[in-house]
Known about the structure:
Distance between the termini: 10 Å
Structural class: mainly beta
Strand order of the largest sheet: 3-10-5-8
Order of helices and strands: EEEEEEEEEE
Number of domains: 1
Largest sheet: 4 strands, antiparallel
CATH class: Mainly Beta
Shape: globular
Helix content: under 10%
Amino acid sequence: MGRITRVTHSYYESPRRNTPLEITCRSTRNTEVDDQPYVRERVASNTWEKADTGWLYNTGLLVVENRAKHDSGQVLELVLVTNESPPDGAVITPHLLLSPRESFEGRLGVGMSLCVRSKDGKPVEYTVTAFPG
């Protein structure tokens, strides 16, 4: 049906290294369906919100990008949950932190959801892209 191809480049530079360390990850995978990808721009607040995947119940790849400016210091917190958002006021240690302009991409297990909130409670713009699975 469809196909998801991803390429990620990561670099690490240090004054102690003559050349940067570079890691490149590539993958290609066929999907079971041919639905349209779902893209939404959102604003995180101090409460947990499920990452909106629209009409896609089986995501082949989920990408969350923190769209805050590089120097803003606005960090997103992400947590994996089983099919419901954490209750209001719940003390939850985030599984992932996204600094400005960083992104997370992955494929969620059956019955899992990804929830997002702002680390300091101030509004943080982010984008969710769900590719069909």
